[in-house]
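**User:** Hello, beginner here. Are you able to go through the protein record under this note? It all follows right here:
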Amino acid sequence: QRGEVDEVLRCGGERVVEARRLALGLNEVARSTSPTGAASAVRYLSHPEARVRLAALAAVAARPVPQAVGPVRALLADADAVVAASAASTAGVLQDAQALPAVRALAERVPREPDLAEPVAAALVALAGKDDAQALLRPWLTHPHANVRRVAAASLSTLTGQPVRAPHVPLPEDTPRLEPVAPGTTLTFRTLKGDFTVAVDLETPGTSGNLVRLARRGYFQGLTFHRVVP
């Protein structure tokens, strides 16, 4: 209610791990209307757990405070690519011009790490000059990853005030073709928290087919799920 990470430090009856409690509390700070709440999130920008750093970044982005500028800039070099990308978009919200060189470095990684595209593009639009940002974003229009092209087109449309469309780029000939998923296919996840089984959605053949293919290859053996998306 006060928009500060306070009560959450003492709740959970010692049965909820600290990182989980902090992430939950910081997510509430991000939704708070308190004008001073985000200040309590700044110290968690250096927390050892990535999910806590991400939640702190969300809180700061929702309610920017000047004391967050330095810690957010430091996270642009975070070993976790998701944290670094989130720091880029937050630096854009904070209008931190000194963060631009690090944002540029992240932009150079986008061709190899397409997941960085959206938050890095947001930072470029916010921090780089119009011409500079366009020069960095236009090469993304021909990237083989469809989402990189979409992000580039949307960002360039914002910068130019004119609709920009990304051209169709065919997949490379050596791209593995997915076999159709049979009706009734299920996948069982065996985790330290217990097992659960999911039915494969036949209306998303690309995503589901890729999931089945990776599972058959053993890709998920021992893999840690570091993010949970509702």
